[in-house]
Amino acid sequence: MGEFSHIGSQGRGRMVNVSEKPETYRLARAAAAIVMKEETVKKIKEAKIGKGDVLGVAQTAGIMAAKQTWQMIPMCHPLMLTGVDLRFIFLEDGRTIEVESEVQVTGRTGVEMEALTAVSVAALTVYDMCKAVDREIVITDIRLLEKRGGKSGVYRRQE
User: Fold this and answer.
1) N or C of the chain: less Cβ packing under 10 Å?
2) Which of 44, 26, 25, 47 is nearest to 34 (CA)?
3) Could you write out the three-class secondary structure of the chain?
4) What pLDDT does residue 1 have?
5) What's the confidence (pLDDT) of residue 131?
6) All domains of the chain, ordered by start, with CATH?
7) Is there a contact between 30 and 116 (Cβ–Cβ < 8 Å)?
8) What pLDDT score does 2 carry?
9) Cα separation of 102 and 132, whole Å?
10) What's the pLDDT score for residue 107?
């Protein structure tokens, strides 16, 4: 880990110039956990949440968020994403839904922030749609699982 690339000559933040970097295929995967009451998970599975299809709406929200990351995180570059997908996994504890994202691009900078933003907003959407029936929902463990491409190569979280 060298110097911070997002610090300009006057010590303030800057958006890094990536115009000289080669375009390469890049991929990032991220995850978050949403912990709630077992009854809430059951209502989601049975489509009995009053606001509608919780996971369908969360999927769309996560995709939209990945595409708009550059507008929310000041030093992120606008990217022409080539793929965004989310999946939801009901864990065996009966209380946790794991949301995972996979974001892809051919570009000059990675898509870690887009993958992390996708799972964060998807989890927040689940919270929003279920808060009327469960005020104790916790969003936790937002993390990068994997990144590929660029100068630093491959990273995989050891869990």
Assistant:
1) N
2) 44
3) CCCCCCECCCCCECCCCCCCCCCEEEEEEEEEEEECCHHHHHHHHCCCCCCCCHHHHHHHHHHHHHHCHHHHCCCCCCCCCCEEEEEEEECCCCCEEEEEEEEEEEECCCCHHHHHHHHHHHHHHHHHHHCCCCCCCEEEEEEEEEEECCCCCCEECCC
4) 44
5) 97
6) 24-149 (3.30.70.640)
7) yes
8) 52
9) 30
10) 95
Mean predicted lDDT score pLDDT of the chain:
94
**Residues with active-site annotation:** 128
**Which of 54, 59, 51, 52 is CA-nearest to residue 101?**
59
Q: For 16-69, how does the pLDDT look when each residue is reduced to its tens digit (9 = 90+)?
A: 889 989 999 999 999 999 999 999 999 999 999 999 999 999 999 999 999 999
Amino acid at 50: G
- Selection from 142, 51, 67 nearest residue 100 by Cα: 142
At residue 28's C-alpha, the angle toward residues 27 and 29, to 5°, is 130
